[in-house]
Amino acid sequence: MSLIEKAKDYIVSRRSFLGATATLAVGAAVAVTLPGCGLQKVDSDRVAELANKEGEWITAACWHNCGGRCLNKAYVVEGVVTRQKTDDTHPDSPDYPQQRGCARGRSHRKMVMGADRLKYPMKRKNWEPGGGKKELRGKDEWVRISWDEALDIVASEIKRIKGKYGSSSIFAPVGGSGGGLEPLRVLNAYGGCTERWGSVSWGAWPVVWQQVTGIADTGAASGNDRFRLRESKLIILWGANPAQSSQGLPTFNYLQAKKAGAKFIVIDPLYSESARVLADEWLPIRPATDTTLILAMAYHILTNNLMDQKFLDNYCIGFDADHMPEGADPKNNFKDYLLGTYDGIPKTPEWASKICGISAETIRKFAQEYATTKPAAIISGGAPARINNGEHLPHAMITLGLMAGNIGIPGAGVSPNMHNSSTNAGPALVKPGNNGIPAVKNPLKSSINSGEMWDAVLKGKYTESKGNIKDINIQMIWNWFGHTLNQRAGATLGIEAHRKVEFAVAQNLFLTTDARYSDVVLPVISQWESLGGLLTGNREILIHYRQIMKPMFEAKSDIWIATELAKRLGADTKIVNPISEEQALYNQIAGAMVMKADGSGYEKLVTLTAEDIKELGANGKPQTGRITYKEFKEKGIYQVPRSLGDKLEFTSFVDFLADPVGKKLATPSGKFEIYCDPLAKAIEKVGFTTKSPIPKYEPSREGFEDGAKNGYPFQVITIHYFRRSHSTLDNVPWLREAFPQEVRISTSDAEKLGIKNNDIVKVTSRHGSVIRPAMVTERIIPGVVALGEGAWVEMDEQAGVDKAGCTGILDGHIPTGQGHTGFNSCNVKLEKYDKPLDPDVKWPQRIIF
């Protein structure tokens, strides 16, 4: 019997759970330790004693990647968190809003002090050098070991594998050494490793945005800030659902724009939470077909002479034959593509309707309204462009805005304005300083795309560039931080890959999917147990979190682990760990900058005295800033004061429109490139697929057209979910109870399949199967099902299904375009499942020792 199974008979109520974890955190008296699983009953008198004592409110890290980054306060009594609250540092108002947390942030203590925290280093029972019984990864029992033994095993396996196969055989799939305190630093100091690359969150936007606009970022911080949004007359949320995916202020900011008179149109296969709150109209669309709607709108604008020809002539290149770049074939212009001059297919609303599912009449009405309304903003989420070979979508969307002249004027724009920039575009108004830790350069060039990495492990080959297929022999995987196995497409292959290599190691707070399929697991501290740090959020805030509690059990920091391994490997510890954690924190605080009120540049944020620097335990010089260190530490946040009409408002491309010669874009033409040969060449160079220099619709691999003809008649969309931030917090019982992991199915589809609410449904793609309870609803279009991404894989290997509903099991391991991941182009079939499935809140926690 596994250790997890031994815990089944011991279920802690929500109330006693807090008491248990609180008391465990301070090492209080323990009445009973259950055999085999280490779950402890707690002295209730000690719990009551803590509840009646006075404590201190301390700013706690809310560090997960949710797109909100709000203020999180923990009430600490003798090192124990007894409750939480959010921002109350100033009165709330639309112009100067509080940074309020959500259910996820307010559940952090249930995660950090969870009974399922990894407490000690451990190894698989059947592991031995070279792998042992590798097929038992994910199923084996665990053996507690000491830190010395754990570090010796990891170091010896790194040495052995490097010596036998070379440094490139060690795969670190998080990638990016940067200036952070990551295990990758020790690998690079020891000769390097193979890394992972590829866009995940932003889908196909990054390379398209950079090449078409000349701005070297993802486009996520482009558009309008929250005050300029109030000038919009029409806001189109295209596959954007900030009410669920970007907690905090975005929906509140949109409500201010709505109160100021903006009309909202939401385009989404799902009638989302944002649509419920904001939408005046909802246009349900089939996933991965958005480009057809855009092209049909462009056709209507063109054929009804609604385009802003002056804008196109002055600021764009490639729209028509008379405005093509030098050397390009005039026939390859966008106008003739829309008209079907050379391919014989006019991109009419009727043409698009058959693909995207929106009526031709609605398309014409929508196009008419957009073209005749200024300012109008198109704000896309990442979801519509998270499709296979999807670069045509952002290219077409930008072009639509250019045709209407709805770019570069306050309240207008086209961008994937999302994540922590959602509703508040523009450069950061306050930002941390550099921590002063230099990057450790990887001496190797081997780097594998997310869409090929598991194939590369299993087959020994990967694509370096077009026509350049390289051999690779991955024999070790080091997992940390990113939950790669769970959160990347092709998790079924990923499990197989983990069972093939000779060694897999993970470091985490919990027995995540990555950890479960490893040989050695190292427990790490959370940000609540660390020295402290700075967190960025929306452009107006900087959060200073502090240490909340001492490290639990035997958990260690990532940099401690890296340093100890460096010693055992003979790597230079001064390279791996060049400065103290105290100095790194001081560097961030001392280097923090804030925009001047007149918008002319930055000034120091924090005043630091000699006493402050001594308190921080660092070396430095006193300085004068806008606020004192004491105020920053006690409040835990600095928020830039804002007011309507201040000098800090922002709209993308205003300067370029005012002076297209002096402020020309960083593109070859100096203009927006509707015909963008550099984009086509950049995609071709990657070596997966190709793209036309103009935006043309290209059906996605495993998109709408591909499914029905191949026996997978449904499309699945992977949505961000209230219960967790990606996969973080998925193990919290409170959140599992509040937000069950359900598969959403339309009422008409459910009736045809004989499925009712809460029936267990099996969802199967070409790549794997999951089972989940059904949520039958009118809020999703027929032919589409929705499943929240981030559930921790829970395989029933005998049945061949994942019981948790991990979308990575369904999504294909498919490299396309610039190397982005196509989470929302996936075909599935549905069937009623004949075996029962307990709600996951009732599943035993993954408690080891």
Q: Which structural class fits the helix and strand makeup?
A: alpha/beta
Helix share of residues? 25-40%
Widest sheet: strand order? 7-6-22-21-20-8-9-17
Report the end-to-end length measured between terminal Cα atoms: 14 Å
- What is the overall number of helices? 32
What is the 3D form?
globular
Major sheet summary line: 8 strands, mixed
Radius of gyration: 27 Å
The overall pLDDT average reads 92
Content of β-strand: 15-25%
What is the number of E strands?
38
Low-confidence stretches: 1-42, 176-180
Helix/strand layout:
Elements: H1 3-6, H2 14-25, E1 30-33, E2 40-42, H3 44-51, E3 56-60, E4 72-77, E5 80-85, H4 108-112, E6 122-124, E7 142-144, H5 147-165, E8 170-172, H6 184-189, E9 194-197, H7 205-213, H8 226-229, E10 234-238, H9 242-245, H10 250-259, E11 263-267, H11 273-278, E12 281-283, H12 290-303, H13 309-315, E13 316-317, H14 334-339, H15 349-356, H16 360-371, E14 376-380, H17 392-404, E15 413-415, E16 430-431, E17 447-449, H18 453-459, E18 461-465, E19 468-471, E20 476-480, H19 484-487, H20 491-498, E21 503-508, H21 513-516, E22 520-523, E23 532-536, E24 541-546, H22 558-569, H23 573-576, H24 581-590, E25 593-595, E26 602-604, E27 606-607, H25 610-616, E28 627-628, H26 629-635, E29 637-639, H27 654-658, E30 672-673, H28 677-686, H29 704-708, E31 714-719, H30 733-738, E32 743-746, H31 747-753, E33 760-764, E34 769-777, E35 784-788, E36 795-796, E37 801-802, H32 807-810, E38 827-832
Parallel strand pairs: 8-9, 8-20, 9-17, 10-11, 10-14, 11-12, 13-30, 14-15, 20-21, 21-22, 27-28, 31-35, 32-34
Antiparallel strand pairs: 1-2, 3-4, 4-5, 6-7, 6-22, 16-25, 18-19, 23-24, 24-29, 25-26, 31-38, 32-35, 33-34, 33-38, 36-37
Helix pairs in contact: 5-22, 7-17, 7-28, 12-15, 12-16, 12-17, 15-16, 18-20
